[in-house]
Design brief:
By secondary structure, this protein is α+β, with helices and mostly antiparallel strands. The chain is about 50% helix and about 20% strand. The chain folds into two domains: about 5-70, no CATH class; about 95-180, no CATH class. It has five helices and six strands. The strands form two sheets. Strands 3-2-1-4 form a four-stranded antiparallel sheet. A hairpin with a 2-residue loop joins strand 5 (about 80-85) and strand 6 (about 90). It starts with a strand and ends with a helix.
Amino acid sequence: MRPPDVVHVAIAFADGSVGVMQFVTCEYNPNGSVRRTAVADVPAIEREIARSAFDAEKLPVQGWQPVDPATLPSSRVYRNAWTWLGGAVRHDIAKVKDIALTRVREARAPQLAELDAQWMRATGKKDQATADAIEEQRQVLRDAPQVISEAWDDAGATTVDAIDAILRDTHPLGAQVRSTVSGTR
C-alpha cells in the first residue's frame, strides 16, 4: 500500500521542546487510487494542531513551521531533547546529557540492588573481605553519572556524537546504555 503524502511540521512548545507532526496531504486506497486530499495551508495546519493530542493547557503551542524531514536530527534516541534553534530542530545538549545520565541511573539500579543483596549476605556472614570487594563495585556504579559527566566536561562534548562516544568509552554502564540505543531512530 502506498504511504500517504505528508508535510512535516515542527511545533514549538512553551517549555522549549519541539514536536514534529505529519500533516497528510494525500491518502491512498489499497489499490493506489486517491482516498482523500487536503491542502496544507495555514488554517488547515492550525486546525490539525488544535485537534491533536497536545495538551494546550500543560504545553501551549508557541508556533509552528513546515520543516524538511532531511533537516531533522537523524537519531531519535534523544528525541525529548529536541528544541527549535536557529530556524531548525536541534538537540539541546544539556537535555541530551540529562537523558543519557537518566539512562545510566536506570541501568545501574538492578545491578545495585543485586550488589546490595550480596553485600548484606557477606556482612551477615561477617565476611569482611567479600563485603569490601562488593562495596568497591557498588561505589563504581554510584560514581558512574559523575565520572561520565566529568568526562563530558573535560572533553568539551557539545554534540550528540561526542556525548555518545564518551558515554560508550568512559564507563561500563555508559557502554551498556549506549549499546541498548545505538542504531535507534
